[in-house]
Automatic annotation (TrEMBL):
Catalyzes the first step in hexosamine metabolism, converting fructose-6P into glucosamine-6P using glutamine as a nitrogen source. Keywords: Aminotransferase, Cytoplasm, Glutamine amidotransferase, Repeat, Transferase. Its EC number is 2.6.1.16. It catalyses: D-fructose 6-phosphate + L-glutamine = D-glucosamine 6-phosphate + L-glutamate. It is an enzyme of class 2 (transferase). One of its GO terms (cellular component) is cytosol. It comes from Teichococcus oryzae. Its main location: cytoplasm. It comes from the Bacteria. GO terms for molecular function: carbohydrate derivative binding; glutamine-fructose-6-phosphate transaminase (isomerizing) activity. This is Glutamine--fructose-6-phosphate aminotransferase [isomerizing]. GO terms for biological process: amino sugar biosynthetic process; carbohydrate metabolic process; fructose 6-phosphate metabolic process; protein N-linked glycosylation; UDP-N-acetylglucosamine metabolic process. Residues 37-179, 212-354 form the SIS domain. It is found in: Cytoplasm. The chain holds residues 244 to 607 of 607 of the full protein.
Amino acid sequence: GKGNYRHFMEKELHEHPVVLGDTLRQHIDPATRAVALPPLPFDPAAVPKITFSACGSAYLAAQVGRYWIEQVARIPVDSDVASELRYRDPPLPEGGAALLVSQSGETADTLAALRLLRKRGQHVLSVVNVAESTMDRESDGTLLTIAGPEIGVASTKAFTAQLAVLAALALGFGRARGTLSAAEEARLTAALLEVPGHAATLLEGGEEIQALAAEVALARDVLFLGRGSLYPIALEGALKLKELSYIHAEGYAAGEMKHGPIALIDQDVPVIALCPSGPLFEKTASNLQEAAARGGRIMAFTDAAGAPALRRFAERVVTLPTVDPFVAPILHAIPVQLLAYHVAVLKGTDVDQPRNLAKAVTVE
Ligand code: F6R
């Protein structure tokens, strides 16, 4: 049941700290701070390419995984939504690997992509939340997310658990390939292991996000912007807001603003920016400043180091805990989910069962 929560989604949002902790401890030894992956169906040190595929939020988690694996392990990654990949017939290298991501393990398009990739000789690894699901059974290897049952149709804890597995995988691949030193591995696993505690802090202090939600609820259109590994989280923010509140939202790479979407900017379109401090901060901040100069109302998620610069032009700045840039996408995923939740509650939509949506899309 829902316990004391109004919706399953609210309950599931509050399960983030436990789910992230359980999922991370599955793949990281807290004592040694070393990644410990189960046997994989391919050798990450030798694999020529990994093809990622999934649908919806699971695809966006995979997109973050792509940034991580390319950055940390230097493995070429191709990725596409499963409904495209299955008909695209991409050239695939011999000995290549495929990585599929799915909460349910039953999504028709993802399953079709899995079968195609296997038939084409790729070694298939799946990240799924439901053990014994069709995808679990048909993959050469499975990494389980330990999110427990997710009842709310919009994915929340399963999404961040997918990110946790993909982060551990990227570090494990980096070690196998010699692109990540033991010291860096220990530093990044320590940063990951701190995420559950930060998630708990975020969930306790929701007032700023509620205040932001009250403004977003009045909008007809909303833009979400992010750069690097925060770009897929911007897309996820827009997807969540659309599906839960029925407000039109789009996510863009921050640097793409000036190539078209900036024409939409006026005081009626809130611009929600995911802009933690780190190597890309200045670039994103300058994109936001351009939007602000054209009358855009910037609402930024950042951290203590990023807040002062953004406060100069942003209407609202929500300060999240300070973390290593590597784990920032996991931490930023939680407030965008919370925002969509609060907006949906304010608009009175059916939070756990949005119109026209199904929890598992088992038809093409
Ligand atoms: C969005 C959402 C969907 C699913 C997608 C894939 O909140 O929940 O976009 O992520 O339908 O489902 P799974 O992960 O079961 O393959």
